[in-house]
Amino acid sequence: MKNKKSRIVLVGGGSTWSPGILKAMTTHLNEFPIEEIKLYDIDAERQEVIGEFAKILFKEEAPEVKVSYTTDEEEAYRDVDFVFCQMRTGGFDMREKDEKIPMKYGVIGQETCGPGGFAYGLRSIRDMVQMVNSVRQYSPDAWILNYTNPAAIVALALDKIFPEEERILNICDQPVNLLRSFASLIDYDADKLEPVYFGLNHYGWFTNLYDEDGKDRMPEIKDIILNGGFRPVDAEQRDQSWLDTYAMVEDMLIDFPDYLPNTYLQYYLYPEYKFSKADPTRTRTDEVREGREKKVFEECRRIVENGTAKDSTVVHNDAHGDMMVEVAGSIFHNLRKTYVVMVRNNGIVSNLPDDSMIEVAASLSINGPQPYAVGPIDTFYKGLIESQHGYEKLTVEAYMEGSYTKALQALTLNRTVVDAKKARQVLDALIEANKEYWPELK
Ligand SMILES: NC(=O)c1ccc[n+]([C@@H]2O[C@H](COP(=O)([O-])OP(=O)(O)OC[C@H]3O[C@@H](n4cnc5c(N)ncnc54)[C@H](O)[C@@H]3O)[C@@H](O)[C@H]2O)c1
Ligand SMILES: O=P(O)(O)OC[C@H]1O[C@H](O[C@H]2[C@H](O)[C@@H](O)[C@@H](O)O[C@@H]2CO)[C@H](O)[C@@H](O)[C@@H]1O
Ligand SMILES: [Mn+2]
């Protein structure tokens, strides 16, 4: 058991992911002891359900940990070591619009990719900037571990707006989830499989997967996928759309056999096919509302009513929560564990722009991420990433400058859109839907 205990605030405390993260905190106390956990949300109702659940969970599993919840910023951000951030500006109502509006114009609607991700990005930046400013007012040295999506846009915006910040780390759980699923194909412990990975968030590739003997297991894993398809390791917990998404890894591998792709590349490599398979009246938001959101809130309410979480199987501890807690532990206790995270490029991928926020494997120490050098990448990947980085950069600049032209350029560069007339139609519709959240684009 480590001696140093940390104080944490979970921003977006009323998130559907909170119970899993809180559970993961209780199961990692030996490596990551906690003094205090606060939950903060702007939605008091959601916050109360999860906050009351948290009190019961910790009373039963770790009564020494102080637990509270609040909608007050100062109370939330004062005197903390870690800010775990996972907010959703505009909630599921706006996510539904992000997914459904682009489809009216023949373009994919997705939470983080294409125009949906663009719209969500312009909403997230404002609240994320406010969060960083408030945190710095009340806890100048706290680490901000951000999961808020679209993480690619959020990471780039925060890097541009707070260039001196050294304690903001943006993370996605998809690489670690994929790693777990790859490892299960060869019956190997995922924690012992060392990845080499490069790209942007939701836009990257595994190039090698080394086992403990230094053998690259990637060729074997590719063969298994090419001969038997690909399913996530936790397939029984997944909705159909995620099973379809994982299955597309085989298609991508047939077409581009060099590396193992992040699942999100399906939207950029096969935009027409993905659009043809999508239902414009029922998107992922409908699945989440009827599935995860309903289940999580019903279960937390039941636990609060019964006063115990001991009999709960719904609130499990998955890769998402584990990773958030392990990343914090590796930083706080200088464990130097390797995770795939987002960092400013600065030559790590030697032939990509220095100012891009790339996603690569890094060792996490008390000094933050120490990324592993990747070197130059081949033309196909370089071309794809440069255009996507252009899209991300123009999106952030459109926000910062209030520029309609840059917004239009961003969407035109995005591989899910391409046609500038379509880009304009989608942009105009999104401007109308996001009036309450976006800066004015002139
Ligand atoms: N990086 C990753 O790989 C990863 C993985 C899973 C989820 N996520 C992200 O985590 C977030 C939560 O997802 P969810 O599906 O649970 O959504 P959710 O809507 O259930 O939860 C988000 C919570 O944030 C709150 N919120 C909104 N604006 C806020 C603000 N300014 N300050 C504090 N709280 C605020 C909402 O009231 C809500 O309770 C999303 O951004 C999602 O995209 C990221
Ligand atoms: O559509 P959602 O809200 O279910 O998820 C969107 C998120 O998808 C990825 O997260 C995966 C995660 O990698 C995996 O652990 C598992 O728990 O499922 C999640 C999806 O349900 C993605 O990395 C996130 O950025 C998305 O927010
Ligand atoms: Mn992600």
Structure description:
Mn(2+) binds at residues 172, 202. It holds the Pfam family Glyco_hydro_4C. One of its GO terms (molecular function) is metal ion binding. Its cofactor is NAD(+). Residues 197-417 form the Glycosyl hydrolase family 4 C-terminal domain. With 442 residues, the protein is of the alpha/beta class. Helix content is 49%, strand content 15%. It has 16 helices and 12 strands. The protein has helices at residues 18-27, 44-61, 73-77, 91-104, 114-138, 151-161, 174-185, 218-228, 240-255, 265-269, 271-277, 284-306, 319-332, 379-401, 404-413, 420-433; strands at 6-11, 34-40, 66-70, 82-85, 143-146, 168-170, 194-200, 203-210, 260-261, 337-344, 357-365, 368-371. The strands form 3 sheets. Strands 3-2-1-4-5-6 form a 6-stranded parallel sheet, with helices on both faces. A hairpin with a 2-residue loop joins strand 7 (194-200) and strand 8. Helix 5 (114-138) packs across helix 14 and helix 14 (379-401) runs antiparallel to helix 15. The termini are far apart. The structure holds nicotinamide-adenine-dinucleotide (NAD), ligand LEZUNG72 and manganese (II) ion. Nicotinamide-adenine-dinucleotide is lined by residues 11-12, 14-17, 40-43, 46, 86-89, 91-92, 127, 147-149, 151, 172-174, 320.
Secondary-structure element series:
EHEHEHEHHEHEHEEHHEHHHHEEEHHH
- Unreliable parts: none
Number of helices: 16
Q: What is the radius of gyration?
A: 21 Å
Number of strands: 12
Measure the end-to-end span. 56 Å
Strand order of the largest sheet: 3-2-1-4-5-6
Average of the residue pLDDT scores: 97
User: What's the overall geometry?
Assistant: globular
Strand content: 15-25%
Q: Which class of secondary structure composition applies to the elements?
A: alpha/beta
Q: State the share of residues found in helices, binned by percent.
A: 40-55%
Which kinds of small molecule does this entry bind, naming each only once? nicotinamide-adenine-dinucleotide, the ligand O=P(O)(O)OC[C@H]1O[C@H](O[C@H]2[C@H](O)[C@@H](O)[C@@H](O)O[C@@H]2CO)[C@H](O)[C@@H](O)[C@@H]1O, manganese (II) ion
Main sheet attributes: strand count, strand direction, barrel closure: 6 strands, parallel
